Amino acid sequence: MKPLKHLLSVALIAATVLVASCGNSNTNTEATNDDTAIAKQPVVTAPEAAINKLHWLAGWWQQTMKEGILFEQWQVAANGTMTGKGGFIKGTDTMIIENLALEAYGDTVMYIPTVKKQNNGLPIPFVMTVAAGDSFVFENPAHDFPSRITYRRTSATSLVAAIYGNKNGKMKSETFEMNKVE
Predict the structure, then answer these.
(1) How far is it between the farthest Cα atoms of the chain?
(2) Terminal-residue alpha carbon distance, the chain
(3) Rounded to two decimals, what is the model's pTM?
(4) What are residue 69's DSSP bridge partners?
(5) Which residues of the chain have pLDDT under 50?
(6) Domains in the chain, ordered, with CATH?
(7) 155 exposed, middle or buried (CB, 10 Å; 0-12, 13-18, 19+)?
(8) For residues 139 and 42, what is the distance between their CA atoms, to the nearest angstrom?
(9) Angle at CA 143, nearest 5°, toward 142 and 144?
(10) Is the CB of residue 134 less than 8 Å from the CB of residue 152?
């Protein structure tokens, strides 16, 4: 079995356990902070429809910080899946931190980041557990930080992304307010 297929199989099993442990297979009741309003919305069960609803992510998104520019760049592939990259720009230097993918596997939509210096450079799959309007939640309870990733479109040109999880034994979160520039 190829490593990605094995990893995805493990993620699908983990997602099944996560959904079953919530007591309602269509509801995520464990959300916190900005997820609270969308947490009780039903999960979209048709992966193609869910991925199509994510196509608004296509383009260049950034947050300007005093240290530089944090960015994500997304594009829609011919088959409807999405690929992207996230990184940081400081002066004239651009550092790619992660390669990103949004893909459908059966009835499941996966957010799959690959970070060079984490997980031995292997992809870390997150299962979409909530798709409500312009808000999406992806989870991997087996991963420490992050174990939950959220995206919420706040206007045609702005979004709030957040990550949550256990970092060094404490629950932590980080929020990113990004604007679309192309």
Answers:
(1) 50
(2) 39
(3) 0.75
(4) 64, 89
(5) 1-45
(6) 3-180 (2.40.128.20)
(7) exposed
(8) 15
(9) 120
(10) yes
Q: Which of 44, 100, 52, 56 is nearest to 79 (CA)?
A: 52
Instruction: Catalogue the long-range contacts made by 34-39 (C-beta closer than 8 Å, 24 or more residues apart).
Output: 34/150, 34/152, 34/160, 34/162, 34/175, 35/130, 35/135, 35/137, 35/148, 35/150, 35/162, 37/135, 38/130, 38/132, 38/133, 38/135, 38/137, 38/152, 39/130, 39/137
Buried b (16+ CB within 10 A) or exposed e, 17-27: ebbeeeeeeeb
Dig out the tokens for 8 from the structure. Answer: 């995805």
Assigned token pair, 110: 């996966």
Q: Can you read off the two tokens belonging to residue 138?
A: 């992806």
**Is residue 12 packed enough to be buried (19+ CB in 10 Å), middle (13-18) or exposed (0-12)?**
middle
Residue length, the chain?
Answer: 182
Candidates 24, 3, 17, 37; CA nearest to 127 is 17
pLDDT of 118: 86
